[in-house]
Design a protein that fits this description.
Oligomer: heterodimer
Number of strands of chain B: 9
Distance between the termini of chain B: 32 Å
Strand content of chain A: 5-15%
CATH class of chain B: Alpha Beta
Order of helices and strands of chain B: EEEHEHEHEHHEHEHHE
Helix content of chain A: 40-55%
Structural class of chain B: alpha/beta
Shape of chain A: globular
CATH superfamily of chain B: Aldolase class I
Structural class of chain A: alpha/beta
Number of helices of chain A: 26
Mean pLDDT of chain B: 94
Largest interface: A-B, 28 and 25 residues
Low-confidence stretches of chain A: 1-7
Low-confidence stretches of chain B: none
Mean pLDDT of chain A: 94
Radius of gyration of chain B: 17 Å
Largest sheet of chain A: 6 strands, mixed
Strand content of chain B: 15-25%
Chain lengths: ~775, ~240
C-alpha cells in the first residue's frame, strides 16, 4: 500500500502586507520569516540568550494567587466528584462550540477556556460515540438524544471506520494484549501545531499562505493530491473559526500580536482551538517559551511591563494549561493514568549556530512550579545540552529536587541525529520538528508476551489461541538460547507485520473522520510524518534471554502445554547493572524489532520510528502477561519504559543509568524513556552538594548519548503517607514514564507499583 | 583478585563528588554499631580483577565530574592491601581519583605502597579513649593514632570520620580530647560526623548475631549540633553526613 507521495512541499509564501508588518514586527530583525511562514528564522534572528542565574525571578502576584486559589478549589471539587467536575452533554465540541468562559474575568490577563465553565468537560465524539457515552454514563450522565442520534445514525466516527476494516487477526492481537492502547477508539493526538504562528502572523496572513499553497496543488488529481487539497481546505476553515473564537473573547486574532501579553494570548488561543477540537492522548504545546521571550524583552526594554508582570503572564498562561481537561472513560486510566493531557512544553536546548536557547522566559516557565506549586501539567521538558549555562543547569536541578516535576531530554543527541534546532516533544519523549513534522501515534506492542510465543509454539500463553503459525515446538523444556532466539525472531516478525497493518488502518481512518484541521492549520502543508511505534517489556525480555543464556531455565507447563512457570537454576546478570552480557541483549532486541518495523510500508509514506516507552501501561501489560523466564510471575507489572526491573539494579543508580544509556537512539527515534527515582539524601549531605551532583549526573548521562530522564527526588515514605492521606497532598507530583501525574489521582494499584519501583538509596 | 562484597555506583558520602564505592569483604574490627556487618567475615566476597574494576571506572568516568572517583571501603579495605595495590596503581595510571576508607589499624609495606596511589584517606576514628575504643571495636586505638602520624609524615590528605553513637561516643569531654589530639595535624582537611542509625541492624539477625546496641536511638538534632559546635573549635571544615 505504499503510496507514492511526491507532492512537493509548498513554500508557505506569506503575502507581505501591512498586517504582518505591524508596529512591533517592524522593530524585529528581519529575515526569511518576513517572506514565508518561518518562526524558526524569527526566533533565531531575535532571541536574547540569557547566561545569568535565577535571581531576577518574581514570585506570584496577589492576583495570581487569588486566581489560582479559585482553580485549586475547583480541582478539589473535581477530585471529590469522582475526578470530573461537570460535563456538557448537549454540545459537540468544536473551535467555536462554546461561548467565552472565565475563571474570574476581572483577574484574568490571559483568557480562554475549553468550554464556558472552568473544568467543564466537552464531548468530542468524532473519535467514537460509544466512548463518549460510556464516559458520561460512568459519571451518571447521559449524552443528549440529539447527539446520540447524529453520531449513531448519520455521522461516521474514527472508531467506526477502524472497526469496519480491522482484520480478525488484528482484533485477536488487540484483545489478547499483544497490542495495547491503540488509538482506535480515541483521538491519536501527538500532533503539535506551531501555535507561535498565530502570534507572529495573525490569522489573515496564515489564511493567505494556505490559499497560496492550495493554488499550487494542481493535477493530475491522484488520491493523495485530492486528499491534500481537502485537508488544506479544512485548515482554512479552521483558521477562520479560530478568528471567530478570538471574537468571542474580544480579541482580534486576524492580525499579529502587538505586545508580550498579546503574544502569550495569541499562542494560547491557537493551542486552545486545538484542545477544543481534539482530545488526543497527548496535546503538546511545542517550544514556545523562547519565542515569547522575544516579546517580553521588547516590552521590558520599552518600559511597557515589569518583571513581575512578565512572570504574571506566564503564570496565568500556565494556569490555563493546567486546567485543560478531556472527557475520558475509566478504562482509559489503565494506560494513561491520572487524567494526563500532555501539554508538553520543551524548554531550552541550543541553536545550530552554537548559541543556547535559554532565555529569561525559560526560567519563568520553571518558576511557575514555585509560584503555583508543583504540577504534572504542562509537562515541562528541559532540552539538556552540555553547553547550557551553568546557572540554568543548577536552577533545573533545584527545581527537580524541590518539585519532581521536570523531565530531561538530550538536546545534543536530538539536534545531531534529527538535524533541527526548532523542535518540541510530542507526548512524552518524542522529537517533532515544529510546524514541519507530525507524528502518527502508535501506542505499543508487548515484546515480553511475544517472547512467550517463542516458547509456546506460537500460542498465547494465557488463552492458548494460536497467534503465529509456523513456530516449531521446543525440542526440550530445558530452554536452549539459540532455539528460543530463532523462534523469537519469527514471532517478532509476525507481530511487527500485524502491528503495522493496524497502524495503517488507524491513521487512514483518523485522517478521514477526525482530521486535526485546527492543528494542521499551523503546520506546513504536506509535512513529514513519523509513524511512532512503541514497544514494552524490554527489561523483561533482556533478563529472560540472559537467564536462558547464562543460567539453566526449565519451563513448567500446564495441562494445555502452555508455560505457567519457569524454574531457574544458577545466576544470571540482570539489565540495570552496567553489565554488557545482558545490556547487549536489550540493545540487540530493540534494534532488531525496530529494523523489522522499518521494513514495512506505511500509510502516507510515513517514516517509521519506535519508542521504548510504556506510559503507565506497564501495569496492565503485566496483568496480561504470563510468567516469564526471568523469574517474573504472571501478572507482575513490567518496569516502565526502558527501566530495569524494580530491585534488580543492584549496583546503584549510576550503573542503572549506564545500562539504559547503551540503548541506541538511532534505532528508537521515537524515544527511550527512563524514570529515575532517588531519595533526596542519596544525592548528598547538603543542598549545594545535591544540586551539584544532580547536574553532574545529568551531564554524564547525556554525554553517553542517553535520550531521556524523568527525575524524581523524593522519599518512599512521603508517597506512602500520600496514599493514606490524599487530601493533604493535592499537588504532589511524580514523574512516571515520560509524563508526570498528581500522585493522588493514580489508582491504588498504580500507586503501589510506583512505590515498588527502585528508589535509589545509598544509605 | 580482590574480594568484593558489593558496589555502590552512586556514592555521595565517601569522598568528594560522585564516587564508585567498592565495599571489600573482611574486617579486622567488629564494631558494635557496624552498619555493614555482612562485610566483616574475612572469607567470601566476589573475586574481582583489576580489569573489571578499571572497566567499571571507565564506564562511570563522566559521572565522576571534576571531583569524583573511586573509594575502597568495606569491611576494612587494607586487610586486602596486597590485592588492592595493583588496582589503585592502575587507577592512578588512568588518572582516577582514589580514596581509601579505613580504620587505620594496618600499616605494612603493602599499605604504604597503596597509600602512594591514594588521594585522600577517609580515616574512621572510632573513639579517642582507648578503653572506650576497645569496648566499641574489640581493639586498641594505638595503631589508628600511629597511622595518622604516618599519614602526616607523608603529607597525605585525611578526612576524619566519626560515628556519633549516643551514650557510647558522644561524651563531650571525649569529643574535646579528640579535637585536641588532631588539631595539630595539618593534613587533616575535614571532620565528618556520621550520625548513628539502625539501618544495618537487620543484617545482624540475618547473620545470627546479636545486635548489642539494641535500643540505642538515632541522634537527635541537638546531639548532632552540639558535637558539630565542639569540633568546629578544632577543625576548619566540619560536616554532618
Amino acid at each position: 500500500m505504499r503510496c507514492k507521495y511526491e507532492i512537493k512541499r509548498t513554500n508557505n509564501k506569506v503575502q507581505v502586507n501591512k498586517r504582518i508588518m505591524s508596529k512591533i514586527n517592524e522593530t524585529f530583525v528581519k529575515g526569511s520569516w518576513n517572506e514565508q511562514v518561518n518562526v524558526r528564522d524569527f526566533v533565531q534572528k531575535n532571541i536574547t540568550p540569557y547566561d545569568g542565574d535565577s535571581s531576577f525571578l518574581s514570585g506570584p502576584t496577589e492576583r495570581t494567587k487569588k486566581l489560582w486559589n479559585i482553580c485549586l478549589d475547583a480541582i478539589k471539587e473535581e477530585r471529590a466528584n469522582n475526578g470530573v467536575r461537570s460535563i456538557d452533554t448537549e454540545t459537540v465540541s468544536s473551535i467555536v462550540s462554546h461561548e467565552a468562559g472565565y475563571i474570574q474575568k476581572d483577574l484574568e490577563l490571559i483568557v480562554g477556556l475549553q468550554t464556558d465553565e472552568l473544568l467543564k468537560r466537552a464531548m468530542k465524539p468524532y473519535g467514537g460515540i460509544a466512548v463518549v457515552e460510556k464516559a458520561c454514563s460512568e459519571q451518571g450522565l447521559e449524552v443528549s438524544d440529539r447527539v446520540k442520534d447524529i453520531f449513531r445514525n448519520y455521522a461516521k466516527t474514527h472508531n467506526d471506520g477502524v472497526f469496519d476494516v480491522y482484520t480478525d487477526e488484528i482484533r485477536k492481537y488487540r484483545s489478547l494484549g499483544f497490542l495495547t492502547g491503540l488509538p482506535d477508539n480515541y483521538a491519536r493526538g501527538r500532533i503539535i501545531g506551531d501555535y507561535r504562528r498565530l502570534a507572529l502572523y495573525g490569522i489573515d496572513a496564515l489564511v493567505a499562505a494556505k490559499k497560496a499553497d492550495m493554488q499550487g496543488l494542481t493535477g493530475p488529481m491522484s488520491d493523495d493530491k485530492i486528499r491534500l487539497r481537502e485537508e488544506v481546505a479544512e485548515q482554512i476553515k479552521a483558521l477562520l473559526q479560530i478568528k471567530e473564537l478570538g471574537n468571542k473573547y474580544g480579541l482580534d486574532l486576524s492580525r499579529p500580536a502587538e505586545s508580550a501579553q498579546e503574544a502569550v494570548q495569541w499562542v494560547y488561543m491557537a493551542y486552545l482551538s486545538a484542545v477544543k477540537e481534539q482530545d488526543g492522548a497527548a496535546m503538546s504545546l511545542g517550544n514556545v517559551s523562547s519565542f515569547l521571550d522575544i516579546y517580553m524583552e521588547y516590552d521590558l526594554a520599552n518600559g511597557n511591563i515589569t518583571e513581575e508582570l512578565a512572570q504574571e503572564f506566564i503564570d496565568q498562561f500556565v494556569m490555563k494549561l493546567r486546567v485543560v481537561r478531556h472527557l475520558r472513560m475509566n478504562a482509559y486510566n489503565e494506560i494513561f493514568a491520572g487524567d494526563p493531557t500532555w501539554v508538553t512544553e520543551a524548554i531550552g536546548g541550543k541553536l545550530m549556530d552554537g548559541r543556547h536557547k535559554i532565555t529569561k522566559t525559560s526560567y519563568r516557565f520553571l518558576q511557575t512550579l514555585y509560584n503555583l506549586g508543583p504540577s504534572p501539567e504542562p509537562n515541562m521538558t528541559v532540552l539538556w545540552s552540555q553547553t547550557l549555562p551553568e546557572g540554568f543547569k543548577k536552577f533545573c536541578a533545584q527545581v527537580s529536587i524541590d518539585t519532581s516535576s521536570i523531565q530531561y531530554e538530550n538536546d545534543d543527541l536530538m539536534t545531531e541525529t534529527r538535524q533541527s534546532d526548532d523542535y518540541g516533544i510530542a507526548c512524552c519523549v518524542s522529537f517533532q520538528e515544529i510546524g514541519k513534522h507530525i507524528q502518527f501515534f502508535g501506542a505499543r506492542t508487548n515484546l515480553a508476551k511475544t517472547l512467550l510465543l517463542a516458547i509456546n509454539g506460537g500460542r498465547c500463553e494465557m488463552s492458548g489461541k494460536v497467534i503465529v503459525e509456523g513456530i516449531p515446538a521446543l525440542k526440550s523444556d530445558k530452554l536452549d538460547y539459540d532455539e528460543v532466539m530463532a523462534n523469537y525472531k519469527l514471532a517478532m516478525k509476525e507481530v511487527a507485520r500485524v502491528y503495522n497493518e493496524s497502524m495503517n488502518i488507524i491513521h487512514y481512518m483518523h485522517d478521514k473522520y477526525y482530521y486535526e484541521k485546527g492543528q494542521m492549520a499551523f503546520v506546513d502543508t504536506n509535512p513529514k510524518v513519523n509513524l511512532a511505534y512503541g514497544m514494552a517489556g524490554l527489561s523483561i525480555v533482556a533478563d529472560s534471554l540472559s537467564a536462558i543464556k547464562h543460567a539453566n531455565v526449565t519451563v513448567v507447563r500446564n495441562d494445555e502445554g502452555l508455560s505457567s512457570q519457569f524454574l531457574i537454576d544458577g545466576e544470571f546478570p540482570c539489565y540495570g547493572n552496567d553489565d554488557d552480557r545482558v545490556d547487549n541483549l536489550a540493545v540487540e532486541i530493540s534494534n532488531h524489532f525496530n529494523q523489522l518495523l522499518c521494513g514495512l510500508d506505511t500509510y502516507k509514506n510515513a517514516e517509521p520510528t519506535m519508542s521504548i516507552l510504556t506510559i503507565t501501561s506497564n501495569v496492565v501489560y503485566g496483568l496480561k502477561t504470563g510468567a516469564t523466564p526471568d523469574g517474573r510471575e504472571q501478572g507482575v507489572p513490567f518496569a516502565p519504559g526502558a527501566n530495569p526491573m524494580h530491585g534488580r539494579d543492584k549496583n546503584g543508580a549510576i550503573a542503572s543509568l549506564n545500562s539504559v544509556a547503551k540503548l541506541d537512539y538511532k534505532n528508537a527515534l521515537d524515544g527511550i524513556s527512563n524514570t529515575f527515582s532517588i531519595i533526596p539524601k542519596s544525592l548528598g549531605a547538603d543542598a549545594d552538594i545535591r544540586n551539584e551532583n544532580l547536574v553532574t549526573m545529568m551531564d554524564a548521562y547525556f554525554s553517553k548519548e542517553a535520550h531521556h530522564l524523568n527525575v524524581n527526588v523524593l522519599n518512599r515514605e512521603l508517597l506512602e503517607d500520600a496514599m493514606e492521606n490524599p487530601n493533604e497532598y493535592p499537588q504532589l507530583t511524580i514523574r512516571v514514564s515520560g509524563y508526570a501525574v498528581n500522585f493522588v489521582r493514580l489508582t491504588r494499584e498504580q500507586q503501589l507499583e510506583v512505590i515498588s519501583r527502585s528508589f535509589h538509596s545509598n544509605m | 583478585m580482590l574480594r568484593v562484597h558489593s558496589f555502590e555506583s552512586l556514592g555521595t558520602y565517601d569522598g568528594p563528588g560522585i564516587r564508585l564505592v567498592a565495599f571489600l569483604q573482611g574486617c579486622n574490627f567488629k564494631c558494635l554499631y557496624c552498619a555493614n556487618a555482612d562485610t566483616i567475615e574475612l572469607k567470601g566476597g566476589t573475586e574481582t580483577s583489576v580489569e573489571e574494576i578499571l572497566a567499571m571506572a571507565q564506564n562511570q568516568k563522566p559521572f565522576f565530574g571534576k571531583k569524583g572517583g573511586l573509594t575502597f571501603s568495606g569491611g576494612e579495605p587494607l586487610v586486602q592491601a596486597k590485592q588492592l595495590l595493583p588496582i589503585v596503581k592502575t587507577l592512578k595510571e588512568h588518572n582516577f581519583h582514589v580514596c581509601i576508607d579505613t580504620n587505620g589499624s594496618i600499616l605494612n609495606d603493602d599499605v604504604k605502597a597503596v597509600l602512594e596511589y591514594t588521594d585522600i584517606v577517609l580515616l574512621d576514628v572510632k573513639h579517642i579513649n582507648n578503653e572506650q575504643h576497645k569496648l566499641l571495636t574489640g581493639k586498641s586505638n594505638d595503631k589508628t593514632l600511629a597511622f595518622v602520624e604516618y599519614l602526616n609524615k607523608i603529607n597525605k590528605p585525611v578526612w576524619l570520620r566519626y560515628v556519633l553513637v549516643p551514650g557510647y561516643s558522644d561524651n563531650h569531654e571525649h569529643l574535646h580530647q579528640l579535637g585536641e589530639h588532631f588539631k595539630a595535624f595539618d593534613n587533616v582537611e575535614k571532620l565528618e560526623i556520621q550520625p548513628y542509625h539502625e539501618l544495618g541492624a537487620h543484617k545482624y539477625e540475618h547473620l545470627g548475631w546479636e545486635y548489642q546496641l539494641k535500643g540505642v536511638k538515632a541522634n537527635t538534632q541537638e546531639q548532632l549540633d552540639s558535637a558539630f559546635n565542639i569540633f568546629k573549635h578544632y577543625f576548619k571544615d566540619v560536616v554532618i553526613n
